[in-house]
Amino acid sequence: MTTDHKALLQERLQALSPTLLEIVDESHLHAGHAGSRGGASHFRVHIWCDAFAGLGTVARHRLVYDRVNDLMPFPIHALAIVAREPS
Q: Domains of the chain (ranges plus CATH)?
């Protein structure tokens, strides 16, 4: 099931035209956590894209969350984000 959630994240975040996009499923680290009940997933996203140029951390995270907000809190319960502009 989490593979499908990962594919959803991948699809949604492609709209930002990232130069790097790495999505790591960390659901296994949260087994037994209330947020993982019912199959909700936990992910870590590393995303680099030009759209982040000149933006602070909160604004970068908002751009990411804007693309996936309908997936939260289910089927994705948690999303840790590392968002940077390309070097």
A: 2-84 (3.30.300.90)
Residue type, position 68, single letter = V
Residue with tokens 């994705």: 76
Q: Strands 41-48 and 76-84, how do they pair?
A: parallel
Spans in the chain with pLDDT lower than 50: 1
The conformation of residue 80, written as its DSSP 8-state character, comes to E
CB 40 within 8 A of CB 1: no
First to last CA, the chain: 34
Q: What is the pLDDT of residues 2-21, one digit of tens each?
A: 568 899 999 999 999 999 99
